[in-house]
Amino acid sequence: MEAFSDEASSQEVDATSKEGITVAIRMRPLNKVEGSRQRIWKVLPKYNSITQTTNSGKPLSERVTGRTFFTFDKTFGEDVNTTQVYDSVAKGIVSSVVNGLNGTIFAYGQTSSGKTYTMQGSGSIEQGSSGEGGIVHMAAKDIFSSIMSQQNRVFLVRASFLEIYNEEVRDLLSNTNQTLPIREDPRRGVFVQSVEEIVTDFESLLRILFHGEKSRAIASTGMNERSSRSHTIFRVTIESREKEADESMNGGNEENRPPTTDGAVRVSTLNLVDLAGSESVRHTGATGERQKEGGMINQSLLTLSRVIVSLGNSNQGHINFRDSKLTRILQPSLSGNARMAVVCCATPSELYLEETRSTLQFASRAKLVKTNAQVNEVLDDRSTIRRLQRELAEARRQSSVSGNPEHLRNLESRAETAGTVAKEAKEKLDRLKASILNTGYLFSKEDRNVEIATESEAQKGVDETMKSRKRRQSDGGIFLSAKLPISPAPQKAPPTPKTSV
């Protein structure tokens, strides 16, 4: 039986490389509610900027950066389609996830600003797939296109679909409507124990999306006929390992295969997050349950904004991700080990001047956050030994050319030590198994000898006690066990007094 070390190692793509969150702004066209209003926000694609204008469309007399003028990584005007947004912002991140890096892409903005349209296309996800589609459709297609192009690796793809409704986490793929707890594990980090489906192609991944979306909380408000009342996180987990030179040569028997690869497994996740939009009661006219939902959504987004501000501040100490279920679940990505992109959706209408300004200010804060994504690899003992053997073979080849024996000796020492440690761990595991099966005791041989010796000494003490008891009884002594209660000696009844006749 192979002894696993369960050690997860992360290899940095570039130890000195840190990148910021890619922040893009997408300005949607005016809808029928805003048709009679003026546009007072203008996209300047040449400069990747957004500026506020007068009602007539002219520049303001005074430009204030961070209030009336903003610059981002990408800006998209009203005539840009979702494919262009995906290619510029998300495509590179999806490709990185297939190669072992974590990635997170989410849409942010007020309600009815075009977030869900950007993520899943027009209408539902199923309806959107018949047209251009959204980012989720394009990401799903690119994942399997990239997998098909890497014939030297074996892949396993799993998908889950979560919803955060009124600060309760639900599994959109489960038949039960129960609330799920957020857990934390030293190895897995922060996670939710939800249903994960194995997917094998683009169509099966879309079927999971269709199935999960049917359970999502959606309602009509004064601003949107299909208003999302919850945040959703569609998570795709990709595991892969390198194929052997000829994996079928030995019938899959790893013991007979030459170590042409180290067997390390890459594990990465892609989070596609569709956030519910921030709401103002004066615009939505929400009451009752809709008003409560809006309040919870706003509180969750406010917490996300605070966390983003803290992450962008290099002097910030503790960051409380626990104030919201959304930030708690996204904590691994927000903490830095992921490539991230935010598509902030907005409207140019004067009717929502301050709401759009608030979205642009959130996007500006997100630009300050830096991440340092790493390739996540899981190595067991055999994988570690194989990797060292490959490095050793390469070092021997280079040593014969360059004549540098020092590096070669170091690798030989590491390979020998790793092999010895793995062998000792396996032998110890075999001894423990044999001990359990043969004697029923989970002890080493030495511990068992001590236990037997202790039992012998105890029995010897009992024998000596019994001999002493018999000797004292033969001498007429009375022996009382300490474990038995000592009863008082019975007293004689007083004599009956005689009476005279």
Describe what you observe in this structure.
Strand 4 (41-44) and strand 5 form a beta hairpin. The protein is 38% helix and 21% strand. Helix 2 packs across helix 5 (135-149) and helix 12 packs antiparallel against helix 13 (405-439). The chain is of the alpha+beta class. The radius of gyration is 35 Å and the shape is globular. Mean pLDDT is 77; it is low at 1-16, 441-455 and 469-490. The strands form 5 sheets. Strands 1, 3, 7, 8, 9, 10, 13, 16, 17, 18 and 20 form an 11-stranded mixed β-sheet that branches.
- Mean pLDDT reading: 77
Strand content: 15-25%
How is the biggest beta sheet arranged? 11 strands, mixed
| Number of β-strand runs | 20
Share of helical residues: 25-40%
- Give the low-pLDDT segments: 1-16, 441-455, 469-490
Mass-distribution shape: globular
From the alpha carbons, calculate the radius of gyration and give it in angstroms: 35 Å
Structural category is alpha+beta
Number of helices: 14
Question: What is the element layout, followed by pairings?
Answer:
Elements: E1 7-12, E2 19-20, E3 22-27, E4 41-44, E5 49-52, E6 69-71, E7 74-76, H1 82-89, H2 91-98, E8 103-108, H3 115-120, H4 125-128, H5 135-149, E9 153-165, E10 168-171, E11 182-185, E12 189-192, E13 197-199, H6 202-213, E14 218-219, E15 227-228, E16 231-242, E17 265-274, H7 281-284, H8 288-312, H9 325-329, H10 331-334, E18 339-346, H11 353-366, E19 370-371, E20 374-379, H12 381-402, H13 405-439, H14 445-474
Parallel strand pairs: 3-7, 3-18, 8-17, 8-18
Antiparallel strand pairs: 1-20, 2-19, 4-5, 5-6, 9-10, 9-13, 9-16, 11-12, 14-15, 16-17, 17-20
